[in-house]
Specification:
Distance between the termini: 41 Å
Helix content: under 10%
Structural class: mainly beta
Number of helices: 0
Shape: elongated
Strand content: over 45%
Length: about 120
Amino acid sequence: QVQLVESGGGLVQAGGSLRLSCAASGSIFSINAMGWYRQAPGNERELVARINSGGSTNYADAVKGRFTISRDNAKNTVYLQMNSLKPEDTAVYYCNADIRTHLLRVLNYWGQGTQVTVSS
């Protein structure tokens, strides 16, 4: 079994910063891409940022220049540094990863989500 556990969400004023973390644990052989998605009330879940095993990244246009995704492969952890936060960044943020288990199957996993609320 594999688990993704997020932390770091909370309430922050506009212009502030938060850092989200997501640690993968369990029957992990290797981790391919890892990423962050978000879902605001009434909206569909959308990609925020993604990073592959080689460190290449891609970002949603709405967060480019403000958010930075990184990963620590030794800790099976992905981070999302969020700066210059805006009220429209308010959402539940979900960690996502493509993980090759010890059965050598690659499966996609989701974390439970962490709430980020930005007040104006």
